[in-house]
Amino acid sequence: MPRAIVLIGPMGAGKTTLGKRLAKRLELPFTDTDKLVIASHGQIAKIFSDFGEDYFRKLESAALEQALEVGGVIATGGGVVVTDSNRKLLANSHVIFLDTTMDHVLKSLNTEKRPLLRDNPSNWQAIYDSRLPYYRECSKFQVRTDSRPVTQILDELEEKANAEI
């Protein structure tokens, strides 16, 4: 299986933005599992409203498997860790948990595009708290992304990405 560096963490932690930049630095391909789902099935908010979260999680699992086959840097959706099969897939990968705070995220996140936050943005904290044990279980490393310069975060990510597991 190709080398994969998987970024997990809550909504708004910077997985996609930082993942693209990290992939460029490491000269690796970049895949965003949410983008894979959208490309094949349409907007995530519509999938949630039309078919429900369980259906979306199945699509997300398929996207994770596809991304791991390609390798490179992979940005996942914030809830990828809630599915047992995904946690098993991640167990064999180089996983970095991007951690942040609700205050930092809600300053910049467009909650209208987030089905789990649209009606109640402060729900972010409850979602984070429920997923935190999974983020910790699945990751080999943790990197804070709140209130730090992007270059500093990327330097730390590159160091963690290149670390032996």
What does this protein look like?
The longest helix has 18 residues, at 53-70. The chain has a 5-stranded parallel β-sheet with strand order 2-3-1-4-5, sandwiched between helices. Helices cover 55% and strands 13% of the residues. It is globular. The model has no long low-confidence stretch (mean pLDDT 88). It is α/β, with parallel strands linked by helices and 165 residues long. Helix 2 (33-41) crosses helix 4 (53-70).
Please give the radius of gyration in angstroms. 15 Å
Fourth-level CATH superfamily: P-loop containing nucleotide triphosphate hydrolases
Q: Quote the average pLDDT.
A: 88
Under the CATH scheme, which architecture would be assigned?
3-Layer(aba) Sandwich
Q: Taking strands numbered 1, 2, ... along the chain, how are they ordered across the largest sheet?
A: 2-3-1-4-5
> What's the helix-strand series?
EHEHHHEHEHHEH
* Secondary-structure-derived class: alpha/beta
Q: Please, how many helices?
A: 8
CATH uppermost class: Alpha Beta
The main pleated sheet reads as: 5 strands, parallel
Helix fraction bin: 55-70%
Overall, the morphology is globular
How many domains is the backbone divided into?
Answer: 1
- Residue stretches low in confidence (pLDDT < 50, at least 5 long) are none
Number of strands: 5
Strand content: 5-15%
State the CATH topology.
Answer: Rossmann fold
End-to-end Cα distance, whole Å, is 16 Å
Short description:
The protein is an alpha/beta fold and 165 residues long. It is 55% helix and 13% strand. The mean pLDDT is 88.
